[in-house]
From TrEMBL:
Residues 286-328 are annotated as: Disordered. This is Inner membrane transporter RhtA. It is a multi-pass membrane protein. Residues 150-276 form the EamA domain. It comes from the Bacteria. Residues 316-328 have a biased composition (Basic and acidic residues). It is found in: Membrane. Residues 301-315 have a biased composition (Low complexity). One of its GO terms (cellular component) is membrane. The chain crosses the membrane at residues 20-39, 45-63, 75-95, 101-118, 125-143, 149-166, 178-197, 203-224, 236-257, 263-280. Keywords: Membrane, Transmembrane, Transmembrane helix.
Length: 328
């Protein structure tokens, strides 16, 4: 029997995790900006459904999952991640059908912000709080008329996003590469199909299907692959704070592609979330990177820790540190 002994995290892993998270945001916002025509033809639920279905097909072709990859625990974690992914996708599209996009984005951000606050300690709490102020200024939720049902949809999407963050980190820790997505995205597609397919299939055309395939690459395939790798390198708290950059990314893309010129308050908010992003990047590293795991026989010394003679006893504590990003 062997156990996993953690080696020290590679130098620069926190920075690479931060860059992956920001890159994922760019793909998400670009995908949303290019989804306008598909929203008009298929509606919000239909657009979310077709993206998930094509994303599931792409991931299955790319990853080619094997049963031997999964334990019962890791498989169930992937299923929960898939349910959270589907809920996050569909509930947010329902929210923006009823309330302004900025308001919905601010409300949905409460999910990752809650993760950041619950996982942060001491001075680290400054960054999520600063980011929260920035997001409010960026989105200016007070400027829109609030539909209570839309607010509930956005808050439900926020809860799904929080579960998504925690499950993505666990799946990324237990399964190498992007193997977990080979279960989670198909599960999300099945759930979305049950909800949205009956009303959407009659509206499909070849043009809409091809557009959906292209959008599935931008959102969610590439972002999810980046995020599952990022959460192996940074803490859930750091990721939760970094997501505050997403409204800022949306503002920049809106300016460049949609010619939406921001006012003074959104610009101030942009500065605040950038400062928060820089601050969290400096303390984003995790205890170790799962990619450096190597089997070690119980009772033998590890090259990374020559003094250790009880690796099997210490490993469970180290994996708890890895998953939470905090000492146990």
């Amino acid at each position: 029997m062997t156990t996993s002994k953690l080696a020290p995290a590679p130098q620069g892993s926190a920075r690479s995790g931060t860059l992956m998270t920001i890159s994922a945001m760019l793909f998400v916002q670009l995908g949303l900006a290019l989804s306008t025509g598909l929203f008009e033809q298929l509606g919000p639920l239909g657009t979310g459904w077709i993206r998930l279905v094509f994303a599931a097909a792409l991931v299955l072709v790319i990853v080619r999952p094997r049963r031997s990859w999964f334990t019962r625990s890791s498989f169930l974690a992937c299923v929960v991640l898939g349910a959270a992914t589907s809920g996050m996708t569909l509930l947010f599209t329902l929210a923006i059908d009823r309330i302004p996009l900025g308001t919905a984005a601010a409300l949905e951000f409460l999910g990752p912000l809650a993760v950041a606050v619950l996982r942060s300690r001491g001075k680290a709490l400054l960054w999520p709080l600063l980011a929260a102020v920035g997001v409010v200024l960026l989105t200016e939720p007070w400027t829109g008329n609030i539909d209570p049902v839309g607010v509930l949809f956005a808050l439900a999407a926020a809860a799904c996003w929080a579960v998504y963050i925690l499950c993505t980190q666990r799946v990324g820790d237990e399964l190498s590469g992007v193997r977990g997505l080979a279960v989670s995205i198909p599960v999300a597609a099945v759930i979305a199909s049950i909800i949205a397919a009956p009303a959407t299939i009659p509206l499909l055309t070849w043009e809409a299907a091809l557009a959906g395939l292209g959008l599935a690459v931008l959102l969610p395939t590439v972002p999810f692959m980046l995020e599952i790798q990022a959460l192996r390198r940074i803490t859930a708290a750091a990721y939760g704070t970094l997501t505050s950059l997403e409204p800022a990314v949306a503002l920049v893309i809106g300016l460049l592609l949609l010619h939406q010129v921001p006012g003074l308050l959104p610009v101030v908010g942009l500065v605040l979330v950038i400062v928060a992003g820089i601050g969290v990047e400096r303390s984003a590293g995790r205890t170790a990177s799962p990619s450096t795991l190597a089997p070690v026989e119980p009772g033998t010394a590890s090259p990374a820790d020559p003094a250790s003679a009880s690796g099997a006893d210490e490993a469970p504590l180290q994996r708890d540190e890895l998953r939470t990003g905090e000492p146990t």
